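Customer ticket, subject: "Can you confirm the structure for PAP2 superfamily protein?"

Message body: Hello, I'm evaluating your service for our small team and ran a test protein. I'd like someone to confirm that this is what the system normally returns, since I don't have a reference to compare against.
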Amino acid sequence: MVSSMEFMFRRLSLFLGLIFLSSSLLYGQSETLSAEDCGITALVTCAKMIGQDQLGIVTSPLRTTPKDLLWIVPFGVAMGLGLDYDAHAMRTLGVDPSRENKFKKVSDYGGLYGPAASAAIGYFLGAKTGNSQLRDTGVLAGEAMVDATIVDQAMKYAIDRERPNTGDGTGRFWPHGLKTWPDGGSMPSEHTMNVWAFAHVVAAQYDGWRTRLAVYSLATTVSASRVMARDHFPSDVVVGSTFGYLIGGFVVRHRSPEKRYFSLSTVNTANGRGLQLSYNFAR
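Agent reply: Thanks for trying us out. I re-ran your input and got the following:
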């Protein structure tokens, strides 16, 4: 079941998403912003970034290329198998309130509270210590999770799938048409989409095998926990993890100063303030 705190968080995120999208259309899309431009004292800029992200995400299917088939085809196959296997998987899993409660707690802390707290701590600690990479990672992770929540909510309303613990347990789509819409929010999994967006950002910002192992292990654990808690079908977490990973990558490519070829910033010199042009040879 969805707690009142989660319900309020989702509705607030959807509301903010509409505001952010409106602000992006108001200010235009010509300016390129990065994590350095967003902060606690520049919330309007942060809102503009989210709005630009949403427009870019919504229109991304128009920019697909043949190489995208490398992930689209496997995703389609996984979805087909998942939808066919969903009901059988949940019947095999069975009902165990004690187990479900434990895994729900794991997924709540690992998929929502933990990543959100980590992003906030990273931002404030990085800002306080002058660690720009840590600060920017906090901003990007938070941005990706807000983006993921907005996309998740839109997809839930559009797909309207019953959860494993409602209806006849088979995960029907639009079971009663518009009469009782929305009937469920099973697809995609918000926790899964959120944590995979977070994981991709952190893994990209701190590109080492230990970091990747840690964050992707967390994301995988949360994904499995959502099924074990009987909050989602296997295909729900496939959709959530795929979209979360893609959203995290989208944010990193468009916002991370470390991932750009060039960066322009102001510096203090003996003769006053000046401009510094940097080139990233690691790209």
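A couple of notes from the result: The longest helix spans residues 97-129. Residues 64-279 form one domain. Feel free to reply with more questions.
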